[in-house]
Specification:
4 helices; mainly alpha; elongated; two-stranded parallel ribbon
Length: 62
């Protein structure tokens, strides 16, 4: 997750994390990154396989 934050720090456009988010803890880590905030995240497979509960993901993301 730190890679997404480092990319956000390095560019001047919004960065959306896509790929590699396996659980709600990853969303928490994205939010906690001390640099430029990541603009959003794509939750694909983690939603389909039940690893991330959508309500819980929204709760920690907002």
């Amino acid at each position: 997750m730190e890679t997404f934050g480092a990319i956000a720090d390095a560019v001047s456009i919004p960065v959306i994390a896509a790929g590699g988010l396996a659980g709600v803890d990853d969303i928490v880590r994205l939010k906690a990154y001390p640099g430029t905030p990541v603009a959003g995240a794509v939750l694909g497979r983690a939603l389909y396989n039940g690893a991330i509960d959508p309500a819980q993901a929204l709760k920690v993301a907002l």
